[in-house]
Design goal:
This protein is 34% helix and 5% strand. With 157 residues, the chain is mainly α.
């Protein structure tokens, strides 16, 4: 439905009775906490004030108006200087510098780091791994059970 409103129009979507669902929340007739109502009232009173639109400036409108007037006068328009973004911090370099500044507390830390860098054995179940060509080569462990038949490649005749 279209309805005139002042200098404009309002558009409303009309629904049939079977398209409208009943509300899924309770009524407001239940007991309201008087303290909560008082707090809500105090917040509303604190935030209530007179709105004066003349105190606000629309900088976008002003810049657009200046641009249009300059084009109408035929003045060459110079693009505004774009400020340079702040430099991006390289987190990896900062981390390396931080680690280089730290002195090792004990002599045993190198041994711990060595233990951490050792390749750990592949604990995945080989029978569940799919045969995929490419990638890095590694030792294949013999699979257990009938799945080995399905993973073998056939030779072309």
């Amino acid at each position: 439905m279209v309805e005139p409103r002042g200098t404009g129009m309002a558009l409303f979507t009309l629904r049939a009775t079977n398209e409208v669902r009943a509300s899924q929340f309770g009524s407001a007739e239940g007991g309201l906490d008087a303290e909560m109502v008082a707090i809500a009232g105090a917040i509303v009173k604190q935030r209530t004030g007179n709105f004066d639109p003349s105190t606000y400036r629309d900088r976008y409108q002003e810049a657009l108006r200046e641009l249009i007037e300059a084009k109408m006068e035929g003045v060459a328009i110079k693009p505004r200087a774009v400020s340079a973004p702040p430099p991006v911090i390289d987190l990896m370099a900062a981390l390396k510098r931080s680690l280089a500044q730290e002195a090792p507390a004990k002599g045993g830390t190198a041994e711990k780091q060595e233990k951490r860098t050792k390749a750990q054995p592949d604990r995945r179940q080989p029978s569940l791994l799919l045969p995929v060509s490419g990638g890095r080569k590694r030792k294949e462990e013999p699979a257990v059970g009938p799945t080995t038949i399905a993973t073998r490649r056939r030779r072309k005749a």
